[in-house]
Amino acid sequence: MCCEDNKPKIKEQQLQLKQEQKNIKIVVLGDSGVGKTSLIQKFCFDTLSEKEQTTLGVAYQSAQIVIKGQVLKLHIWDTAGGERYRSLAQLCYRDANAAILVYNITNQKSFEQIYYWEQELFERCTKLSIGLAGNKCDLNEERSVQKDYAQKYANQHDFSFYETSAKTGEGIQILFTDVIQKYLGQYQQKQQQ
Ligand SMILES: Nc1nc2c(ncn2[C@@H]2O[C@H](COP(=O)(O)OP(=O)(O)OP(=O)(O)O)[C@@H](O)[C@H]2O)c(=O)[nH]1
Ligand SMILES: [Mg+2]
């Protein structure tokens, strides 16, 4: 009897929560094999699949987080780094609020390609919050991209920067949080103008 009485109240609260929930679209870009899918999996499910599983086209994942008391629904679009999927991936960039550009710290070429991904993004959207992820930082002995160098690049381009590992989880939560907070604080107003 008591539970039944509470039902309308619970529904009301759920509806209110839904209305208060803010939607944020995040796209993840970078060369094939840098670990985009793995980063997203680790962030959303705290798991890592060791086997190669190249993304075919694009994949979508949603997640909910609370930052400073605000409920946020994240719509995360995982694009394929492979050349043949580029035109499909481009469809995702539109209306993005934030982007995470990923390179592999053991692969210099994947870092050099960041500029390419940045241009790809800016051709289709501007005024978005961008994060740079130097992924696979657990493989420090095989490093070919120096952290200071990437940090300088990020500062020049106004990117949030963290080295991350989809294996250990290092840097992932803070990177996503930083990028989202930057969007909420700075870019949201610009996008509404
Ligand atoms: N050691 C280590 N391996 C990683 C890390 N992140 C991903 N990997 C491995 O790297 C390989 C490629 O990872 P994916 O997440 O499929 O890469 P992707 O960027 O999504 O590749 P595409 O879908 O082809 O664009 C997989 O074997 C992962 O297990 C990491 O942080 N550390
Ligand atoms: Mg992938």
TrEMBL record:
Highest taxon of source: Eukaryota
Gene source species: Paramecium sonneborni
NCBIfam families: small_GTP
Entry protein name: P-loop containing nucleoside triphosphate hydrolase
PANTHER family noted in UniProt: PTHR47978
Ribonucleoprotein found in the keyword field: no
GO molecular function annotation: GTP binding; GTPase activity
Cited InterPro entries: Small_GTP-bd (IPR005225), Small_GTPase (IPR001806)
